[in-house]
Task: structure prediction
Amino acid sequence: MERLAINASAGRRVIGPWHINNVNGYHGRLKNGLRGFKGVASSHQPHCLGWFRALERFRPTHLTPPALLALAIGI
Result:
């Protein structure tokens, strides 16, 4: 995954499809979503991020727990 730096103090707010408000919003939702894990070991971060992505994308559809688990682990 490529990292991009958006330098807001230099007046730059957009790089291609990335807007600083979208980045800040996603970061806030991610921090709030990981709060329930009460600290995540580095070895478990991909799993927690999988849960976050699955819940972020599919929560409005009210999927069953087995379907969410399948999405989180990539089945």
In short: The two ends are 21 Å apart (CA to CA). The mean pLDDT is 78. Residues 8-73 form one domain. The chain has one domain: 8-73.
